[in-house]
Amino acid sequence: MSSAYIKPGESVAPTPLLASDPGLDNQSTMSQHSDDEQDVDEQWMLGFAEPADAHDLLRHRFRSKVGGRPAWLNPEQLPSSALLRCSVSGQPLHFLLQVYAPIDDAPPSAFHRFIFVFISAAGNKLSQPGAVKAFRCQLPRHNPFYSSDPDPAELPKQVQQPPKSDPWNVAEAEAALREGQSPPGLQGMHLYPEYELVVEPEEASLDDLGAAMQHHSVGNGDEGEALDDVSASVMDSVEAQATPAQQQYARFAAKIASAPEQVIRYRFAREVKPLCPGTTSPPGPGAIPACPHCHSARQFEFQVMPQMIHYLGVDADAATSPDWGTIAVYSCPRSCATSEAYTEEHVWVQPPDS
Ligand SMILES: [Zn+2]
């Protein structure tokens, strides 16, 4: 099997870093910074869940990750406890993941940029509004929490004004790690198993290769053409008998075939749509609320694939276990600065097909 899947340490294709990057050895930056602007917009970046040491996922390492506690970029001004509740069940949200995604044309206030995603404990209600929430947090290069040239070998600087309440007690967990101890457990707050999200560019899919080969054989117009016609008509009749849901799923499966373990698909650009396994259509541009702060039309940034559920260590048969077709995050294209440290962005969830 040819695969885009590359394990950490193999470093076949290290993710290029921002020219002004503080020099971190960072494989989990979602957005790719490259010399070729055209490629940046057209390239999907894929995220894969990989085991990692808890120290490597602390906030001053600026890593993308799944599970564990949130590594708050701004460790002092957290989202309010009201915002961190599920709008459907009223229960505290579970932390799902965070992606480190600084962008090329961001304002100086967004030198560091993360999107955090939280999901409801009512895992069978995730497609209802407010059951999954995404928050954008960003900081300028010169900020109170991190050196402008961070040393990833050190532990994060101690927080000067710890938040009054953090459901995950992150400052306490950091203090324990600083002392070389394991972080204390959490009462009444479920933590998913922790993984780093390692990022690789997507290779051409079997779908794209198939289209290219078809184009090539049509161009040649040789004796292979009759055979091509036969197999094409067989394929057409197979397709005609498949239900729309089966056809949609077949397209989805073909697209991910070269890297089936992908858990994140990232491409922050205009008019991009998520890749969906199910038949519920993603929202059109008019159905995505504009940024309430700068009024720019929000755009697709990334999606969480259903493969992610496999890494959450949940009982797939339990009625309230998390389940989704895809979770799509749409965010402000300008990464505008707001009065909040954590700015809520828009989430659309495709329910799993029954
Ligand atoms: Zn905005």
TrEMBL record:
One GO CC annotation: cytoplasm
Pfam family, one: PDCD2_C
Residues annotated as domain Programmed cell death protein 2 C-terminal: 247-350
Cross-referenced InterPro entries: PDCD2_C
Chain segments carrying region Disordered: 1-39, 143-166
Name assigned to this protein: Programmed cell death protein 2 C-terminal domain-containing protein
Organism encoding this protein: Symbiochloris irregularis
